[in-house]
Amino acid sequence: MDNDGMDKSTRSSAADTVGDDALMGIAEMCEAFDVSARTLRFYETKGLLTPRRLNGTRVYSKIDRARLARILRAKNLGMPLSEIKAYLDMYGDHGEGRVQQLTYVIETTDAAIRDLEAKRAEIDTSLNELRLINQQSRQALDAKRSRSKAAQG
Questions:
Q1: pTM attached to this predicted model
Q2: For all residues of the chain together, what is the average pLDDT?
Q3: For residue 117, which of 109, 106, 129, 127 has the smallest C-alpha distance?
Q4: Is residue 72 within a helix (H) or strand (E), and if so which, with residue range?
């Protein structure tokens, strides 16, 4: 489950539950993706989403739904909004930047994997050290208690 309360499969199916050409209103988007209207408007001000307007009301297309799913996923992975925007803008108007997007994803995920593996190695080292300290402290305490009992008895 993601921080925004929605797992990836739910979010993906939410984007696909409406027909390809169907438009969704803001309330439907909020419900489908478990986000607030304020969140959608914020993403719009940052240039991440560009819903059309029908009679002054925001309406979201299949492309908008796909973009929101990507935004939420990237946000959940800790990517800053500026990087999310740069990634989304690579796509272009007709997908001409898809190779560039995929290259970017490969490079950034490779770097993130390396960083996390290094952090995991540091955590493993720290855990081993803490376990050793804990074990030595338990042995020292047991020895103290044994000597104390022997002196009393």
A1: 0.69
A2: 88
A3: 109
A4: helix 62-76
